[in-house]
């Protein structure tokens, strides 16, 4: 999860941000879809891995509840950033990259808190 979230961050900041023309956008869409698909599919499995069987449903619901707040608030913020710039996506791209970097750092902190940095 840490690797794919950092990959998504790098794709936003290093490929989408400086992209000009169709080829970089198509490449970004394909690679970003691959890297964020792992987030959607791995998150419930990771919650189940650290939870007791009786708590999996509650913890998965809490995780998706927290994610729903970000999804609810992020879209209006993104729309405002784009409309304030007259249709330019630069500030939205920067906002997206910074938020993804922050989320990736939360994954690292969670890993460190629960298991340290050993590879099992």
Radius of gyration: 16 Å
Q: What structural class do you assign from the helix and strand content?
A: mainly alpha
Rounded average pLDDT: 92
Helices, by number, come to 4
What is the oligomer described by this structure? single chain
**Tertiary shape:** globular
Number of strands: 0
Query: What is the N-to-C succession of helices and strands?
Result: HHHH
Distance between the terminal alpha carbons, to the nearest Å? 14 Å
Helix amount, in percent? over 70%
Proportion of residues in extended strands: under 5%
Largest sheet entry: none
Low-pLDDT regions: none
Sum up the structure in keywords.
mainly alpha, 4 helices
Describe this protein's structure.
The chain is mainly alpha-helical and 120 residues long. The protein is 82% helix and 0% strand. The chain is built from four helices and no strands.
Describe the structure concisely for a colleague.
By secondary structure, this protein is mostly helical. It has helices at 2-16, 22-50, 56-84, 90-115. The longest helix is centred in the first third of the chain and has 29 residues, at 22-50.
Write the layout of secondary structure elements.
Elements: H1 2-16, H2 22-50, H3 56-84, H4 90-115
């Amino acid at each position: 999860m840490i690797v794919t979230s950092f990959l998504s961050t790098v794709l936003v900041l290093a490929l989408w941000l400086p992209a000009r023309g169709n080829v970089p956008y198509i490449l970004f869409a394909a690679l970003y879809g691959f890297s964020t698909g792992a987030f959607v599919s791995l998150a419930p499995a990771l919650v189940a891995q650290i939870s007791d069987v009786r708590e999996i449903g509650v913890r998965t619901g809490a995780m998706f509840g927290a994610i729903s707040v970000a999804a609810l608030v992020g879209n209006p913020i993104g729309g405002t950033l784009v409309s304030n710039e007259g249709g330019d996506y630069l500030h939205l791209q920067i906002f997206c990259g910074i938020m993804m970097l922050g989320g990736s750092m939360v994954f690292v902190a969670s890993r460190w808190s629960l298991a340290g940095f050993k590879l099992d």
